[in-house]
Amino acid sequence: MNIKKFTGLALVMALSLGLTACGGNKPADDAKEETKTEDQAKKDEGKDEKKSDGKAKKIAVLLYNGSDTYIASVRQQLEKLDKDDDSIELVFQDGQNNQGTQTDQLNNIIAQGVDGIFMNIVDISAAPTAMETIKASGIPTAFFNRDMTESMKEDDLKDFIFIGTDAPEAGKMQGQILTDLWKKGDMDRNKNGVLDYVMLNGGLDNPEAQARTEFSVKTLKDNGIKVNEVAFQDAKWDTDKAKTAMDTWLQTNQDNIDAVIANNDGMAIGAISALQAVGMNTGSSKDNMVVVGVDATDLAVAEIDKGTMSGTVKQDAEGMAKALIDTMKNRLANNDFIKGTDYKLGADKKSIRIDYQIYTGK
């Protein structure tokens, strides 16, 4: 055989063997990643098995409206806690802002059988009927967000608890944000010495909306500021309804409005959208209007940090979710809702109140 050919053939065979050997052993990083992925899969599989072995307590979560920005953030926090806790399994239902739909959901989950219920009721006036239905089932229930404590008695605490906020405090904090801005001297757009505002209300029959509306204005008056309500709209917590109202007001009173007071951030965002359509509150515009909301949603915080929104009052979704889980687990362990926890009942002796915080930027 020709020596050159033999040498070339040997070299090819050697390279081939070398490549085969390398291919049979993955690089260390890849091997680690594969092991990590397999370990995570086993871990997740183990969690799923624990959730489905019948030992996890099933809790139905009835939301008044899953598209509400704040309620969506509470759901997100609940899902995080559920994922990390093998002892519970949350099942979500969206009432889509329809009490009839939610009532059907309540009846169905009771018939199917659950260990606990978190209920964010659509219509507060339906609370007595819902409580009667739930009490007959014997399922412990934590109402949340929409304050229905007027329908509760102290001796209902073995069956129910309400977890929410102190609604007047949100209004007071909005009033304080506006007071601080007014005292800076550049908020009076028509220079009449009066704080002219429009109010975007969440619901005429909603206690939280009523309290936020009342106490935001009362705080301004208590701080010695003259106020004038230019317009009022029940926008039902809805961004689009708020934008429509603001569009109309800007057509007739653009130069005579100093501030927009919105009962939630969703409506505040609607107002900002209308303002930006006429060249205001863009972040670089010279002519801006003060807009305040409640909830400290991610979108509102981003607008505040950009300078297009003036402030909000943080409603703590994470704190709300944690209180719901902690108190329900306590109750399902045959304790009362708050025994042995760090939570305390509010002045009404029927509820836990999560604190608000002012946010006006980084």
Automatic annotation (TrEMBL):
Domain of life of the native organism: Bacteria
GO CC terms, sorted: outer membrane-bounded periplasmic space
Keyword annotations: Calcium, Metal-binding, Periplasm, Signal, Sugar transport, Transport
Molecular function GO labels: carbohydrate binding; metal ion binding
Annotated region (Disordered), positions in chain: 24-51
Secretion signal, residue range per the UniProt entry: 1-21
InterPro entries according to UniProt: Bact_Solute-Bind_Prot2, MglB-like_PBP1, Peripla_BP_I, SBP_2_dom
Subcellular compartments: Cell envelope
Predominant place of localization: other
Domain Periplasmic binding protein: 59-334
Compositional bias of kind Basic and acidic residues: 27-51
Keyword Signal: yes
Quaternary structure and interacting proteins, as annotated: The ABC transporter complex is composed of one ATP-binding protein (MglA), two transmembrane proteins (MglC) and a solute-binding protein (MglB).
Protein name as annotated: D-galactose/methyl-galactoside binding periplasmic protein MglB
Protein's organism: Anaerococcus tetradius
Lineage: Bacteria, Bacillati, Bacillota, Tissierellia, Tissierellales
